[in-house]
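[recover] target loaded
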């Protein structure tokens, strides 16, 4: 046991991570891993709320490996952090069921995030599954099992941590203090996609992945949207809303150079090619150490699996301890214990009676002695 406060956060294993994830969450996690005891959940049960088919389940193992590999490649240290697979922790299912009784259906149904997720999965009020409505309850179980103090989340998930707090307070009030009330930490900003139209998202085809090769990054950068009104390099360009500059602002360590480039761009003194050339170099320099770690973990057969496996076994212990306290506080342990005790008494008595009657009874037929 350490006395560091705990963090719970993670991702659904639906594909590889991109620069948007780095800006929005990963860099924060790397920064926080020394200060907090971190639990990173590979949330495959959450994936089932919108993708329950066997074809999706068949992808879990590979996607979980890819996700963990991306975590490790950006510098998550497996010696300090616990990376685990949600579906292998049966206490998640149990706690989620208990918590489901402490929140109303309208409270969940009103959440814009649930409506958004339903819409994205082409579901409406009539087709939304019970499980998707319960998404924040499942998330509360994830957070409360390791008794996390801090939950780094994207803006879209902030309301879910509020639900977690309500559930934790409700639980503690009804049954006794078991859970700390977790804080949320809204992670870094949103990174726009290479199309400049929407946030970077793997399903929109506008993402630069952490696992992209230098050549692919270069190609993506050169096909990036810039300023649609700029036909020639000597026409003044717009910096605001131009994703090339958004990325330079985020990833170029030489702020003075970026400021100079922006100024020249505005004055029509620099072409898109030069700016993109710089961005390709900057992004590849940023990604080089990521690639190096990725290559290392990939060269060690079974190492990523071992990290997920060890993390999951550790999480099982943590979860079992919390759930024991949960059931004890609720009185469920004693409910069953009382029944079990009486049943065991009866079993003992019956066994004793049977033994006695066997001792006094005539020997079974066929084995009778003369
Ligand atoms: P999908 O296309 O399947 O929705 P995605 O690429 O949008 O995938 P999500 O799994 O939806 O990724 O994102 C999970 C979390 O990662 C978000 O809640 C957010 O915190 C963070 N994130 C994703 N994309 C970005 C982005 N472009 N900028 C900042 N943060 C992001
Ligand atoms: Mg998304």
């Amino acid at each position: 046991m350490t006395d560091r406060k705990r963090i719970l956060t993670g991702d659904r294993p639906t594909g590889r991570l991109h620069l948007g994830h780095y800006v929005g969450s990963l860099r924060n996690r790397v920064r926080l891993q020394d200060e907090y005891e971190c639990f990173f959940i590979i949330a495959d049960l959450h994936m089932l709320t919108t993708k329950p088919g066997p074809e999706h389940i068949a992808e879990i193992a590979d996607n979980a490996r890819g996700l963990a590999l991306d975590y490790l490649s950006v510098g998550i240290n497996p010696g300090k952090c616990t990376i685990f697979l949600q579906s292998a922790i049966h206490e998640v299912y149990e706690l989620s069921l208990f918590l489901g009784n402490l929140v109303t259906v309208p409270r969940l149904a009103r959440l814009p995030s649930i409506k958004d997720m339903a819409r994205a999965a082409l579901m409406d009020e009539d087709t939304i599954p019970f499980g998707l409505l319960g998404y924040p309850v499942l998330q509360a179980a994830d957070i409360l099992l390791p008794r996390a103090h801090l939950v780094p989340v994207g803006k879209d998930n902030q309301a879910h941590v509020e639900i977690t707090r309500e559930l934790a307070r409700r639980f503690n009030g009804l049954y006794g203090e078991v859970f700390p009330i977790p804080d949320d930490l809204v992670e870094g900003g949103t990174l726009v996609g290479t199309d400049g139209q929407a946030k970077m998202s793997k399903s929109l085809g506008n993402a630069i992945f952490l696992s992209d090769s230098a050549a692919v990054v270069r190609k993506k950068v050169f096909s990036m949207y810039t300023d649609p009104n700029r036909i020639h390099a000597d026409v003044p360009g717009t910096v605001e809303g131009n994703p090339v500059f958004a990325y330079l602002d985020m990833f170029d360590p030489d702020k003075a150079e970026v400021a100079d480039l922006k100024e020249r761009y505005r004055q029509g003194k620099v072409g898109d090619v030069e700016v993109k050339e710089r961005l390709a170099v900057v992004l590849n320099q940023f990604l080089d150490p990521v690639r190096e770690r990725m290559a290392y973990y990939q060269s060690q057969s079974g190492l990523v699996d071992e990290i997920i496996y060890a993390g999951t076994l550790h999480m099982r212990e943590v979860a079992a301890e919390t759930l024991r306290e949960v059931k004890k506080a609720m009185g469920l342990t004693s409910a069953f214990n009382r029944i079990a005790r009486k049943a065991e008494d009866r079993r003992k008595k019956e066994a004793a009676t049977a033994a006695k009657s066997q001792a006094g009874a005539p020997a079974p037929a066929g084995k009778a002695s003369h």
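[recover] notes: The chain has a mean pLDDT of 94.
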